Amino acid sequence: MASSSSIALPGQLLGPASKFQPGPGTHIHQSNLYSSLLGVVHISQPAKAPGPTKRLTKITPAPAPAELPTVSVSRSGVSEKREVLPEVGNTVLCRVIRITPRQAVVAILICGDTVLHAEWQGLIRVQDVRATEKDKVKIYESFRPGDIVRAEVISLGDQANFYLSTARNELGVLLATSEAGNNMFPVNWKEYQDPETGVSEPRKVARPY
Amino acid sequence: MTDRRRINGPVGATIPLVFEDVEDYEQVATKAARSRAPNAVRKMYLKTGVTPSASGSAYLEIETSGKGGVSGLKLSCTVYGPRSLPRSSPFSPHIILSTHVKYAPFATKQRRGYLRDPAERDLGSHLEAALRGAIIADRWPKSGVDIIVSIIEGDQDRETSKTQGDEAWDIMNALSGCITVASAALADAGIDCVDTVAGGVAALVRDTADSSPSIVVDPIPSEHEKILASCCVAYLPTRNEVTNLWYKGDLPASDMELYTKLVEKGIQASTNANRVLLECLGETVN
Amino acid sequence: MASTQHALLSPAELAYLHAALSLTPPIRPDGRSPAQFRPLVAETGILPGTNGSARICFADGTEAIVGVKAEVERTRGGYEGEIVEGGGAEEVVTDVNDEEKKGESDWVEMTVEIPGLRDDDATTAFLGAMISEALLADGGFSRRLWINRRFHWKLYLDILLISPPLSYPLPLLSLTTHLALLATRLPRLKSEGDEDPFFDDDWAAARYLYPRNKKDGKTTARPPVTLLVMAVGNNIIFDPAKEELAVADVALAVSIGEDATTAATATGDDASLMMDVDSTTAAAAITSARNLRLLSIRTIDPPSRLTPSGVPNATNTAYGAATTQKQPEARTAEAEAVEGVWRAPRGGAKPLVMAALVHKVLEKGGIADEVLDALHAVDLG
C-alpha cells in the first residue's frame, strides 16, 4: 500500500497540506505537512486508504471531499517497541480483572495488532455487553475474571478507564476457563462448556471467525 | 545541637595546613585558557536506545576540553511511557510530562545526596518547559510520560580550587545537555514532536581582568577569568522558535545589542547540537 | 509550574480572550491598558521580630508576607587561626578594600511557601530559584553581608503567600521581597577588623542593608525586581492575570536591577550642576541616569499549552459534518487552524518576539523605569 517510503525525522517537511492528507505521525504547520515522529514515511493512495488500516492508527483522518493521498509516518521497522493509545473504534483484546454487577473491569492487552507495553484499563458497562435485551444482561452471566475478551473501544472514558463494548456478534469472550480450571470451548452464543466435567457456564460468546 | 549518636572528633578541630606548590600554581594559571575558537562548540557523542527496558533512551557525552583530569559532561536519559496515569490523577486531554533531573552523587566536586535538591528541581522545570513546547501534547490524551535524566558526570574541572569555579554557571551547560539528550530519547520513544529541540549555551566572558568582554559559545566556566552573563536556549531549528530561554548575569539594560547577540550565539550553539542530534536519529533508523 | 494552576475556561472562552487580547489596542478582561499593573497595597516593617519585613496585597486578594532574619555565621574557608596579639607577621588589617569583600551565594537562604503546594513542588523550587537568582546575579548583594574576613551575616528570606495563588504569584513575591529587603536593618558593628563581631544593642542605630540618602530618606541602590511579561498575537501585556496567562503565546519573567553608583551621582551634585546649564538636558540626564541592569530572564511555561482545543464546525458531527466515522467521539483529525476556534499553541516563540518583550521592559522610560519609580514612592517607614 505504500507507494514510496523513506525515513523521516521529527520536524521534517513532508509536503504541502494542499497535496496530502495528514495521517498518523504527521502534523500541519503553516499549510505544510511535517513529520512528528522518527520513522518510515508511507504515502497511501486514496483508493486503498479507506480500508481497515489498523496498523498504527493514532489518528484516523476524516476523508476530505477531494480524495488526496494520505501521508503518514510509522514506527514499524524502526523500533520493535511502539506504543499505541487505544482509540475509539479500535478492536482490542483484553483480560477481565474483576466484575461487579454494573461493570467488568478489564486490562487491555492488544490494540489492533499491536501488543501494548503499558497497562491501560478498560471498562465494559452492563449496558454495553450486548445489543439486544440490554435490560436482562447480567455481568456474571457474561464474563468471569480471567476471560480473554475481544471488544471495541467506544469512548476514551474517564481518567482511568477506556469504555469498551461487546455489543456485536464477533465481540465477546474468546477464551474462558471453567470453575474446575479447564479451558472451555464455546457451544452456542451464550455458553461455554468444560470438556472434562461437561458443565456449561454462561458467557457472552464471540462468534468464531 | 550536638550529635550524641556518633563518636565525634575533638571539639577544637584545626584545619590541616595546605602548602601551595608554586609550579602547580603556574600550571593552573596557564591551563585556564580556551583553545577553541569563540564560535566552536565541543565535540559531542550521542546515541539512542541505550537502555533496552525503557520506551526510549539516549546517552550524551561532551568531549573534555583536552586536558587531563577534566571531566566532560556525561548524561543518560530514559523515557518511560506513554503510559496510563495513576488512578488518583484527574482526566487530562493531554500527555502529562514529568521531568526528573538528578546529578549522580559523584558527578560534581562536592558530593550530592540522593534526594533532589532545589537546584535539580529547578533544572527539571526548565527541561519541562523546553520539552513541552516541542511535543504535540494532544496526541496522547490521558497518558503520562516520565523523562529521567541522570547526570553521570558534571562538567567540572577537578584541578581548579573551589573558589574559582562557580557552580551556578556549570548548571547552564548541564541544562543544555539535558535538553538535547531528552529530545533524542523522546524521538526514540516515538512521542510526537513538532521538531527536534536542542540546547545551546553562550556566555559573555572576560578572559583577563583588563580585557574587553567577548561572547563565546559552549563556555567552560573554569577557562575564563569571569563570566559576566550566560544564556541557555532551547531552539527548534525548522520552525525558528525558542521553547525555553534562560538568561542569567549582569548586563547594562541600555545595551540591548549585547543581549540580542548573546541569544543569537546561544541559538547558534543549539543549531550545532541539533546537527548531531539529527545525524544520531538517522543512524538509529538505519 | 505555571501549568499546575488551570484557569477553568472553555475553548470558546479561550478563543474570545485570545481574540480580545490580540486586538490593537488589546482589550483586557479587567479593562487595564497593556502596561498597567493591578493596584496593590504595600507596607513595610510589619513584623517587629524580624530584621526586615513587608506585606503586599493585590486587589484580587492575593497577599504575601516576607520576613528577613539575619544571623552571624563564621565564614567557611576564612582563616580561623587565632589572631595573636602583637604577633609579628599576623598583622590585623583594618581597612579592607571593596574588592576583597567577596560574598558567597549560600549566605542567603530563601524559602517560598505557597498554600496548597508541597514544599518540594516544582513551582515552589522554580519561584525560589528565580527570585534568589536575580538577587545573587552580580555578587553585589552577598557582598553586603560581609562583616569581616572571618564572619558574615547569613540572611534567611522567608516568603509566604497567604492567600491561595489566584494568579501566577511571581510578581507579587518579587515585589514583596524587594520591599522587605529595603526595610531590612542589620545591627551596627562595634568591633573592628577581624576580631569576633560585637554589635550595638541600640536598634535605632542599626544600619540599613540598602543604605539610604540622608536628605530624602530614599535608597540609592535597590534590590532587583522581577516582572512578568507575556505576548499574545502582536501585543505585549504586563502583569497578566490568570485568565490572560491562559491564552499567552509566550510568557517571560524578567529580573532587573538598578546600578547603585550612577544612580547616586544623579541624585547628588552632578544633577544639580547640570541644572544650571540647561534644564531640559538635566531632566534627560536624570531619567537616563537610572542605570538598569538586566539580571535574569526565564521562560515561564505558559498554561495555554495545556488548554483544551475547540472543534471547528467543519469537523463537528453535531453540525452536520461528514459523519463517515461512526463514533462522534473519535479523535479530531489534524487540520488547519480555523479562525475563531481555540487551539492550544504548539512549539515555542520566535526569537524576535522574545527580544521584543525584553526590549519593552528595558527601554528608557519603559515599564522597568515606571515600576521602580512607583516603588520609590512606597513609604518605607
UniProtKB/TrEMBL annotation, chain A:
Respond yes or no to whether keyword Lipid biosynthesis is given for this record: no
Tell me, in one coarse class, where this protein mainly resides. Answer: nucleus
Please name the GO terms of the biological process aspect recorded for this protein, alphabetically.
RNA processing
Matches recorded under Pfam families: ECR1_N (PF14382), EXOSC1 (PF10447)
Report whether Flavoprotein shows up as a keyword of the record.
no
Q: Which residues form the S1 motif domain?
A: 87-167
UniProt keyword terms in alphabetical order: Cytoplasm, Exosome
Output this protein's name: S1 motif domain-containing protein
User: Molecular function terms in GO for this entry?
Assistant: RNA binding
One GO cellular component term of this record is: nucleolus
- Gene3D superfamilies per record: 2.40.50.100, Nucleic acid-binding proteins (2.40.50.140)
Name where it's found: Nucleus, Nucleolus
**Species name for this entry?**
Podospora didyma
UniProtKB/TrEMBL annotation, chain B:
Instruction: List residues of the Exoribonuclease phosphorolytic domain.
Output: 41-191
Output the Pfam families linked to this UniProt entry: RNase_PH
Would the keyword tRNA processing be found if you checked this record's keyword annotation?
no
A GO CC annotation recorded here is: nuclear exosome (RNase complex)
Subcellular location per UniProt equals: Cytoplasm; Nucleus
Q: Name one GO biological process term.
A: rRNA catabolic process
For molecular function, the Gene Ontology terms on record are:
RNA binding
Return the InterPro entries for the record. Answer: ExoRNase_PH_dom1, ExoRNase_PH_dom2_sf, PNPase/RNase_PH_dom_sf, Ribosomal_Su5_D2-typ_SF, RNase_PH
Looking up Gene3D superfamilies in the UniProt record yields: GHMP Kinase, N-terminal domain
Keywords tagged on the record: Cytoplasm, Exosome, Nucleus, RNA-binding, rRNA processing
Q: Which family does it belong to?
A: Belongs to the RNase PH family.
The protein's name in its UniProt record: 3' exoribonuclease family, domain 1-domain-containing protein
From TrEMBL, chain C:
GO BP field: exonucleolytic trimming to generate mature 3'-end of 5.8S rRNA from tricistronic rRNA transcript (SSU-rRNA, 5.8S rRNA, LSU-rRNA); nuclear mRNA surveillance; nuclear polyadenylation-dependent rRNA catabolic process; rRNA catabolic process; TRAMP-dependent tRNA surveillance pathway; U1 snRNA 3'-end processing; U4 snRNA 3'-end processing; U5 snRNA 3'-end processing
Gene3D superfamilies assigned to the protein according to its UniProt record, in alphabetical order: GHMP Kinase, N-terminal domain
Supply one GO molecular-function term: mRNA 3'-UTR AU-rich region binding
Keywords of this protein's UniProt record, alphabetized?
Cytoplasm, Exosome, Ribonucleoprotein, Ribosomal protein
Alphabetical list of InterPro entries matching this protein: Exosome_comp_Rrp42_subfam (IPR050590), PNPase/RNase_PH_dom_sf (IPR027408), Ribosomal_Su5_D2-typ_SF (IPR020568)
Asked if the keyword Cytoplasm belongs to this entry, the reply reads yes
Q: Where in the cell is it found?
A: Cytoplasm; Nucleus, Nucleolus
Q: Mention any one GO cellular component term assigned to this protein in its UniProt record.
A: cytoplasmic exosome (RNase complex)
Family from the record: Belongs to the RNase PH family.
PANTHER family per record: EXOSOME COMPLEX COMPONENT RRP42, EXOSOME COMPLEX EXONUCLEASE RIBOSOMAL RNA PROCESSING PROTEIN
Task: Provide the protein name.
Answer: Ribosomal RNA-processing protein 42
Which species is this UniProt entry from? Podospora didyma
